[in-house]
Design goal:
This protein has 64 residues and is mainly alpha-helical. 77% of the residues lie in helices and 0% in strands.
Length: 64
Amino acid sequence: MNTNSLIKYFLALLPIFIGIYLLFYLESNGILTSESSHRGKLSVMTLALGLFGSLRAYSFLNKR
């Protein structure tokens, strides 16, 4: 693996890392608590958007 491909993989994983950090930030600051309504739906949507963004970024960066 060369440096260029490692940078592409890191950029492709960036959306899911942002989604995971966003959930961590919301929970650690008490914004998203276990008593919050629709907490599960918000968590699933955040992670799904992160995964979809990572897939789109990976496919965009690996076009030939």
